[in-house]
Design a protein that fits this description.
The complex is a heterodimer of chains A (about 300) and B (about 290). With about 300 residues, chain A is mainly α. Chain A has 13 helices and no strands. Helix content of chain B is about 75%, strand content about 5%. Chain B has a two-stranded antiparallel ribbon with strand order 1-2.
């Protein structure tokens, strides 16, 4: 048991980040499940982080309240943002949400109330592992419940063909907005929780590169299934850590890690189009077609003979 | 005021040249090439390398860098986009593979050149200063404006008048029909990547003449480039040029108005956001590329 405790102490930050990043990947899964490529979740995460941190620092609010507010405010922002923006499709939605994220970041950089470029420091350490685990379990449960529900089918229909879904009488605006708002709330929780264990936040933590990271978690893991984003987030959080400690190529952190991150990302998208989760399906299904292939070879040979 | 206007025009010309490459690829393939910013960065570093290691002059470095970036563009297409062409979800996948390619290029630049800021050797960059009616203009700025105008006009003429230009427009219009008409679509795409990336590299060299640069120099430009092609209408070449100048002017105007220069990016992106919501097809409209 002592070994386990030592392991936990040495890797606590890593385990926390795995949880937070899984939450972020899931927050994006809501919109991706409905076929919408939104890159606003880093900004929602930032809004959640700042809301929760300001509440605990300035008003000494209870932690649960701070996190709840950190979920609520991004969700409230998501409604007026989503209504005009979700009319856009594909890349245009992505760009509009990138622009929104930049505006949020730049406002936070220039606003005295949020500490400007210096950010907020001295955020009390209140997040425990079970908080993150609880948030993760609740999010997964919600996603699991959505899957077989009316909403789940609506998401799927919109993802496959939005115009057809609309023709079928599905209120596409409502469901797209619901996905957007739910994702914003989850990203806000992730932001609030992470702010209370990294103690220091600044606007640039929630910029374009964070938005891209979240997208990468989800896509690498695979978006056919809500376990994919979790898997992707874990793997991508672990890889640089592994490279740093194991040094398989005799390298430290730095450009080599960056390069390998890019390479892995490229290979996954090229060779595993449905993400890492598709690996499991593949292994399970592989035995079935094999005998058939043998049969056909035999047939060809006998025919030739 | 006139000074601000002049600065806006010079800044805008670099944006325009950068965004034209974006627009060309989007027009032909309907994909957003997020590695374009890395090509821009490599452009600046390639010229830097030629200047410092080969001791060549600026013209050689500029042309050399364009060739390097053009070839890099073809490689980029082969590695990151070509394998995806038959897939249904090219949009998502292409975004990710281009981000991955950009990350790798950035890592390589960081490994070879280091993460610090670099500058071109001072004697390689023209340094004369003119004063016209109280407006201070660097010789360098004039050269930058002239070069980027020349390149964008050249591109427009090429698209309009040459055989290759016609082929590119045909592929942009409908790749399948183009193929049926006997156009080698893959070859045209490769040439488009060469041209777009050479222009992106040229923008990088021009940027490097004015400012210092590090392997992450493209990040800012990437977002501004997006703003520019949205303003101009995705895939529209003249739109990207006009969008570039508009953004340059809006930026200097917002510095003049708001005193805090940090807010200038917020104003640019708010503008982008509004254009996108109110006129999703951009100021010139999407179809403009077909007529370019």
């Amino acid at each position: 048991m002592g070994g386990l405790q030592n392991f936990y102490a040495a890797h606590q930050a890593l385990i926390y980040f795995m949880g937070i990043n899984a939450l972020l990947a899931l927050s994006l899964y809501f919109t991706l499940a409905a076929g919408q490529l939104s890159l606003a979740n880093a900004a929602f995460m930032g809004i959640g982080a700042y809301t929760a941190a300001l509440l605990t620092i300035k008003l000494d609010a209870p932690f649960a309240l701070a996190i709840a507010a950190g979920a609520l405010l991004p969700a409230l922002v998501a409604v007026p943002l989503g209504l005009p923006v979700l009319r856009l499709r594909g890349v245009f939605l992505a760009i509009a949400t990138i622009a929104f994220g930049e505006v949020v970041r730049i406002v936070a950089l220039n606003w005295g109330f949020t500490g400007g470029a210096l950010g907020l420091s001295g955020i009390p350490a209140k997040t425990h592992l079970w908080h993150i685990a609880l948030a993760l379990v609740v999010t997964l449960y919600v996603l699991w419940r959505i899957r077989g529900s009316r909403m789940g089918y609506a998401f799927e229909a919109i993802r496959e063909d939005e115009s057809a879904a609309k023709t079928m009488g599905i209120n596409t605006t409502y469901y797209k907005l619901a996905a957007f708002v739910l994702g914003a709330a989850v990203a806000g929780v992730a932001g609030g929780l992470s702010a209370h264990f990294i103690f220091f936040i600044s606007p640039n933590d929630y910029g374009f590169s964070q938005a891209v990271d979240i997208l990468v978690y989800a896509i690498v893991g695979g978006i056919g299934n809500f376990l994919g984003p979790v898997l992707g987030a874990w793997l991508i959080t672990l890889i640089p850590e592994y490279l740093r400690s194991a040094k398989p190529f005799g390298v430290g952190a730095g450009w080599e890690t960056l390069f390998l991150n890019g390479l892995i990302l490229l290979l996954v998208v090229l060779f595993l189009p449905n993400g890492l989760v598709s690996l499991f399906g593949r292994f399970r299904r592989r035995p079935a077609p094999a005998p058939k292939a043998e049969e056909s070879i035999v047939d060809v040979e006998s025919a030739q003979a | 005021m006139l000074q601000q206007l002049a600065n806006g025009v010079f800044q805008g010309s670099v944006y325009a040249l950068f965004a034209v490459g974006y627009a060309l690829i989007f027009g032909v393939l309907d994909i957003l090439n997020l590695a374009h910013q890395a090509v821009f960065m490599i452009g600046a570093f390639a010229a830097f390398w030629i200047l410092t290691h080969l001791g060549a002059n600026m013209v050689v470095a500029f042309l050399g860098s364009m060739v390097v970036c053009g070839l890099l563009g073809i490689l980029l297409d082969r590695v990151a986009f070509a394998p995806l062409r038959r897939r249904r979800d090219t949009h998502f996948a292409g975004l990710i593979t281009s981000i991955a390619a950009a990350t790798m290029l950035e890592a390589l630049a960081q490994g070879y050149f280091g993460a610090q800021d670099n500058r071109f050797p001072l004697d390689a960059v023209p340094s004369r200063i003119y004063t016209i009616h109280g407006v201070v203009i660097l010789q360098l700025q004039l050269i930058i404006l002239a070069v980027s105008l020349l390149l964008t006009i050249g591109l427009t003429v090429m698209l309009r008048a040459t055989r290759l230009g016609k082929a590119i427009r045909a592929v942009a219009e409908n790749p399948r029909a183009a193929r049926l008409l006997g156009i080698n679509v893959e070859w045209v795409i490769a040439e488009s990547f060469f041209i777009a990336s050479a222009l992106g590299g040229a923008a990088g060299v021009l940027y490097g003449m004015l400012y210092s640069f590090s392997p992450t120099v493209g990040h800012d430009l990437e977002l501004k480039g997006l703003a520019v092609i949205i303003l101009g209408g995705m895939g529209s070449i003249p739109g990207a040029v006009i969008g570039g100048f508009v953004l340059g002017l809006v930026e200097v105007a917002s510095i003049g108005l708001s005193s805090t220069s940090n807010l200038r990016d917020a104003i640019a992106f708010t503008l982008l956001f509004l254009v996108l919501v109110a006129r999703p097809n951009g100021l010139l409209g999407r179809r403009a590329v077909r007529e370019a």
